[in-house]
Amino acid sequence: MAKFFGNLNLVLVVSLILTVLVMVGLHPGQITPNSVMRWAHLFFGVLWIGLLYYFNFVQVPQMPNIPDEAKPAVTKHIAPSALFYFRWAALLTVVTGLFVAMFSGYLVESLTLQAPFTMIGVGMWIAIIMAANVWFIIWPNQKKVLGIVEADADAKAGAAKMAMMASRTNTLLSLPMFYTMVSFNGG
């Protein structure tokens, strides 16, 4: 069992197979592109916001407590890997969410904030802003902080501050986004 659980890829493949079995077993004939997109939207959303909260509640607050000789373990290995999943989960959460709205027949109405889709539309726009923060502010600045892109000490310090503010903005926006998502009753 330890060998099985020690292999994340194998665990994920078995989890996906189990998911398909549950879908087919509990909803035979009812699996639609919309239901698959809803499931994928939830999966990628949990991954995205879970990593956002990891960065904001764990990694960033603990960095000052980590001895200098141990910091490269975070900056060279953990953070780049976490940021990979973070940025792609952000993109895939938005894309699958847009597909859910499209398959449900309210994509345009939501994005243009038409009633009765204003609530979900606001949530969609918040998520789009958050994903843009990830790709266009957090990631480019983190590349400087982590040394993926050349930057002097002052540029790294400025990039760290900018990335942190954008990340905290996403943390601030996450709760209202959650509210709009769970409060929408149209799909």
UniProtKB/TrEMBL annotation:
<keyword id="KW-0472">Membrane</keyword>
<dbReference type="InterPro" id="IPR010389">
    <property type="entry name" value="Urate_ox_N"/>
</dbReference>
<keyword id="KW-0812">Transmembrane</keyword>
<feature type="transmembrane region" description="Helical">
    <location>
        <begin position="39"/>
        <end position="57"/>
    </location>
</feature>
<feature type="transmembrane region" description="Helical">
    <location>
        <begin position="7"/>
        <end position="27"/>
    </location>
</feature>
<feature type="transmembrane region" description="Helical">
    <location>
        <begin position="85"/>
        <end position="108"/>
    </location>
</feature>
<feature type="transmembrane region" description="Helical">
    <location>
        <begin position="114"/>
        <end position="138"/>
    </location>
</feature>
<protein>
    <recommendedName>
        <fullName>Urate oxidase N-terminal domain-containing protein</fullName>
    </recommendedName>
</protein>
<feature type="domain" description="Urate oxidase N-terminal">
    <location>
        <begin position="109"/>
        <end position="183"/>
    </location>
</feature>
<keyword id="KW-1133">Transmembrane helix</keyword>
<dbReference type="Pfam" id="PF06181">
    <property type="entry name" value="Urate_ox_N"/>
</dbReference>
